[in-house]
Amino acid sequence: METSFFNPKSANAVKTYLDKGYHTHYEPAILKEILLSIEQADSAKLNWFNQFGDCFRSILMNVNVYRKSCEFGFTEISFDKYGWFKRPQFFETEDLKFGNEARYGEYSIIHLGRGQSHVWTYALNYAFGTAGGGSALSVYGKQFKTRELAVNAGMAELKKMMTEKLNNADTTNYKQPVILGTLRDLEKFEISRIQLSLF
Questions:
Q1: Helices 27-39, 56-71: inter-axial angle, 10-degree rounding
Q2: How distant is the alpha carbon of residue 100 from its chain centre?
Q3: Whole-angstrom Cα distance, residue 30 to residue 6?
Q4: Closest listed residue to residue 190, CA positions, set 147, 163, 155, 145
Q5: What is the distance between the alpha carbons of residues 175 and 78, in angstroms, rounded to a whole number?
Q6: What is the pLDDT of residues 166-193, one digit of tens each?
Q7: Fewer CB under 10 Å: which end of the chain, C or N?
Q8: What is the pLDDT of residues 66-75, one digit of tens each?
Q9: Is there a contact between 99 and 137 (Cβ–Cβ < 8 Å)?
Q10: Residue 164 CB neighbours (<10 A)
Q11: Nearest-angstrom CA–CA distance, 60 and 37
Q12: What is the C-alpha separation between 79 and 65, in angstroms, rounded?
């Protein structure tokens, strides 16, 4: 991606954009870093920023996702055909399913994955019945030193979500058999892990 969006003459544009104040939590720090590079006439650093896009929005978002990727050890810089940073592929990915898949066709999943630097994360897909939600593995996920810690956190979050919907009056969105089945599966999985640890 060859652009020259930032250059030694773009300080005023950066200051104006920074002063708008409609920024996500990470944008002001990146903008100040760019401004400092302009003030120091650091062409190498400006070129580094410029490779991430051709407008404020794309550069700021792509730099942020690249830096989050680095926390997992993913250092390759590449973009899709639309100019957005390519999502890194996690290693040792695994899906742990919980719930009444056979009877109701609804279950929850803990997605596990490891980064290049052996940092683990998880993502959840959860089903209460008609209601549910979820996400894919992402560099924005919580970070863990081991698979075991990621599994523990994912199970705790899923258990908390299910427990909060027990006895919910809205039985269309929150089917109690689905919730109870998920909680039972979580408990069985935990018991099996304890038994395995004894050998």
A1: 110
A2: 27
A3: 13
A4: 155
A5: 43
A6: 999 999 899 999 999 999 999 999 988 8
A7: C
A8: 999 999 999 9
A9: no
A10: 11
A11: 15
A12: 11
